[in-house]
Amino acid sequence: MVYCPSCGERNREGSRFCRNCGTLLEEKPLKSRFMSGDFRESPVKRELQRKEFSDARKEGFEWDTALRGALVLVILMVILGRIFGFMGAIAALMVSVIYVLSSSRRKSQSLMIVFAALLMAAAASALFSI
Predict the structure, then answer these.
(1) How far is CA 7 from the centre of its chain?
(2) Number of compact structural domains in the chain
């Protein structure tokens, strides 16, 4: 078996191109490349990939934070609302807002994320009749 250097797909012996990604397969088998040390990626390439991934995470809207904030709000509202009534719902709202504000990576979008979390929580509450 010959393994693709780009995606790691197993290919048949003698294949010139990877059947998964189309990358030209090297003539040198994987075992000999591993033994000689040619298999390792350069630290520069790895650092560039890590930087591209972190830049991509920073650019978009933080839907994951808004969704987690809405989930915290709905769960706490159900629990605290049943125990303490209206004051429990207010406490759940405060905890959710504090959670979203503290966990957002880009502070410039914090208010939009809080608004999105409240909107998601309201939609979930209406959908499930909580």
Answers:
(1) 21
(2) 2
Which uninterrupted H or E stretch holds 79?
Answer: helix 63-84
User: And the tokens for 3?
Assistant: 């393994």
Tell me which of 34 and 107 has the higher pLDDT: 107
Q: What is the pLDDT of residue 95?
A: 93
Sign of CA dihedral 42, 44, 47, 49: negative
**Whether residue 78 sits in one domain with residue 123:** yes
Measure the CA–CA gap between 3 and 26, rounded to whole angstroms. 9
Question: Tens digit of pLDDT for each residue in 50-75?
Answer: 666 555 555 677 888 888 999 999 99
Domain that holds residue 122: 63-128
CA 8, CA 6: separation in Å to the nearest integer? 6
CB 72 within 8 A of CB 64: no
Return the SS3 of 15. coil
